[in-house]
Amino acid sequence: MLTVICKTPGVLSAEQHPRPTRGEGEVLLRVKRVGVCGTDLHIFTGDQPYLDYPRVMGHELSGLVAEAPAGSALAQGDPVFVMPYLSCGKCVACKQGKTNCCVNIQVLGVHRDGAFTEYLSVPEQFVHKAEGVSLDQAAMVEFLSIGAHAVRRADVQAGQRVLVVGAGPIGMAALIFARLRGATVTALDTRAERVKFCLRQLGAHAGMLVGPDDERQLSDQTGGDFFDVVFDATGNARAMERGFKFIAHGGKYVLISVVRDSITFSDPEFHKRETTLLGSRNATMQDFETVLTAMRAGLIPDAALNTHRMPLARVPQDFASLLDPAQGVVKAIVEC
Q: 102 with 50: CB under 8 angstroms?
């Protein structure tokens, strides 16, 4: 079977590997679609803090069941999606239902080899039927769930003012689900085409470019109060630090981004606002169900989000092009 491996940062290799044997309690999948995530781009550029090379990337996947255990609710040919955060079920986080931050988590495509391949064997409990959605949609559930999880963490309420800093796919996902909760959402990004996309395709109420005057503009927009909830999805330490300026008194700051660096902030400014600071990592099945329900109701503009496609065989040649801002990539899907 064809498998694409990231040997070292910047080096991708297409190789023929033996088809895996289904392990006990596992489901063998025929991978059909894989969404390209910011995590994959960071792996390719050498910026992912939790990874060792070589690695088969890819954790946003859908496919068809090739083999399932006897007595399984899954049958050969079933379309499925995968919860890629393989949690242990036993640690302090899992016992609280917080499987997204399991102490022993194994994320497909990060801690163990992922879906840039034709067949993949995955523990059965992480494989779910893709009912009422297409294979393309099923491959997009995971990244949207990260945004849905962040919005749930912040407990966004109708009528609140929300700022999303960093309008990449994860920021867009947070924007979508904050808006679906009835919040007034503003997008802030360095790229004009991303801001326009949020306004035209995602229903953002306002959009703004990062620049020397953006803080004043955001202040004017909110009558000097700034935002009840600020989400950072930039993956940039300086931007994460700067985001503290945009939080209203009594507001919340949610860091969806993860960076290698330490971040610092002004303690007096933090305290006088009685700021709530939240980390948001991955997602749970509750968030996946939130996304699936919205998809089935036609509330997610998934066709607009999927801007690029490529076959698995072309990944070594074409993957680097996804990093080019001129390409206007929002979400690329690899077809296996």
A: no
